[in-house]
Amino acid sequence: MSSKINKIVYWASTGIILFLLSWAAGSYHIIHDTQAGYFEAFGYPTYLVYPLAWLKIIAVLVIVSHRYSDLRDMVYAAYFLNMILALAGHIIYGDFYGHALIGLIVIPISYLLGNQVRGRPSKNFFGRWTENNSTDNNTDNNTDNNTDNNTDNNTDNNTDNNTRHP
């Protein structure tokens, strides 16, 4: 696909995600009792309504800012799981599930095209714990060192562990 088409598809899919997140967060606050009733009917605890609303507001900010790679990855993964649960809940309850299905389709599109259109964010919110060691030299060296160390350690540990009980 051309760069222009990628941008259009990315922003359209991201716009849908941002709309779904904002609509849900707003409705969780504005019509809380109705939404809590849906949660209860779907088999989910009602105490999740407000925390989920605030997490969706944070998700909107993370996606729009596109600043931290690890947070962006977590937001997309969490919202994908949220859409899977929403889709299952709506289908089981016999309710309209179009919005959940659309969300489930556009999330991977937005995520994958986001790296091409906006680039991958270079910062990590959680620092060293989530840094991406994807440089060519580091990956090869780390893999070789880890394999050698793990093999030696596993051999020694297996011998010692055979006589110990958990």
Automatic annotation (TrEMBL):
Compositional bias of kind Low complexity: 132-166
According to the record, the signal peptide region is none
What domain of life is recorded for the organism?
A: Bacteria
The regions listed as transmembrane in this protein's record are 9-30, 42-64, 76-93, 99-117
Record's keyword annotation contains Transmembrane helix = yes
- Residues covered by region (Disordered): 128-166
* Keywords for the protein's UniProt record, in alphabetical order: Membrane, Transmembrane, Transmembrane helix
What name appears for this protein in its UniProt entry?
DoxX family protein
Question: What organism is the protein native to?
Answer: Marinomonas phaeophyticola
Per the UniProt record, the lineage of the source organism begins with: Bacteria, Pseudomonadati, Pseudomonadota, Gammaproteobacteria, Oceanospirillales
